[in-house]
Amino acid sequence: MADALPGRENLSLNTDVQSAGSIFVYSDELAWFDFGSDHYFKPERASKTYELCNRYGLMNHEWMKILNPERIDESVLASSHDAEYLECLKSAGRGEVSLELLERGLGTPDNPILPGIFDWSLSVTGGTVEAMNRILQGKALTAFNTLGGFHHARKSNAEGFCYINDIVVAINEALRQYPDIKIIYLDIDAHHGNGVQEAFYDDPRVLFICMHETGRTLYPWSGNETETGDGAGKGFTVNIPLEPGTDDEVFSYAFDEIVPPLIEAFSPDLIVAELGADTLISDPLTHLKLTNNGYSRAIKKVIKLCPRILALGGGGYDLYRTARCWTLAWGALNNLEPVDEFAGLVGGMMFGPELEVGSLFDHPYSSGGEVKARAVSEAKRVVEYLKKEVFPVHRI
Ligand SMILES: [Zn+2]
C-alpha cells in the first residue's frame, strides 16, 4: 500500500476487521422514505438487509457500530455539485415544480419531485461521508451504507434515481483531507457508474473500475471499454462492459483477468465499492444473469486484496435477493460466515421465499447457446483490449 496517509502507519498495521472495527450505516427512518409505489427504487431494501443480517448472526458483534446518519453540511457538497443544481434540488424537496427543475432532471419518472428528497439525500450522503471519515481516522477498517451509492447523479443534474452523488462527495472529501491518497472506485452494479466516472475522468488519484451491462442495451448507454480517462487520468478509467445473458462464469472470468491485477498494481489506500445487486438474473431492470454466488465471490477477492473498504448499496430491484446479496457482503466485510439462527424452528420468522430458509445462496445458474457464446466472446475481446490499452499504464 502507498505511504500517503498521515498517520497511516497505524492503519496499515491493523487490517483485521474484528479488532479494527466496522460500521453499518443505518436508519429506519431513512430506509422507509418512499419514492412512490410505482417507482422501482425502494430504500426499504436497507431495512430488509438489516433484518437479515440480524437473523444470520452478522450484527451485534463487539467490533461493529451502527451509524445513524446525520445531514451533511451543505457546504461539503460544493466540491461535487454546482450551486444552481443544489438550489433546484432544494426547491424540489419543497415539492415545487417548474420547467427549470425539469432541465436539471428533476420531475422525470426516474427522478420525481418528492417532498423531503433534499433532506433525505443530505442524510444519506452524511452517512457515506461520515463512514469515509471514520475509516480515514482509523476508527474502522470497513463500512457499509446500503442506503447510499448514487453513482448516476451528475454535477449539475439528477438522473437514474440519483439526486446527490454521495460517492463523489465522499471521495472528494478524502482527497481534500489527504491530497496524495490513492483510491480505487470499484463498481459492480449492472449500470455504468457514469456520474463517478465523469467526476474523476482526468484524475490519476482515483482508479475507476466499472463492470456493467453494455451501454448498447442498458441505461446510461455509456461505459464502453474505449472510455479510459483523459489527460493525467489516461488509463485510470477502466470499463468492463458485459453482454446481456452474462452469467457467474463469464463475470468471474472478466473480473479475475482485470480487477485483481489492477488492485495489486495500483496498491490503493482504500477501495470505495458500489455493490449494486441488479446484476442478478431475477432483477426486473437489467439483462445480466448472475447469481449471488458470482457476486459474493468477487467481493471476497477484493477484500483479500484490500480490506479497507467503504461499501455502498446502489441498485437492486428484486428487494429480497438484493437484501441477501448485501447480507452476504456485510458478512464477508466482517470475515463472518452467515448462520441462520431461525433454521429448523417450526413457525419461526419467515423472510422471503420460504423454501430458501436456511441458506442465503442462490441456486447456481449457467447461460447457454448463442447467448452464452456471445457473452464469452465479447468478454474475451474486452479483456484483451484492456490488457493492451490499460495494463501498460500500470506496468502490468
Ligand atoms: Zn444499477
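qc> The first strand starts at residue 22 and ends at 25.
qc> done
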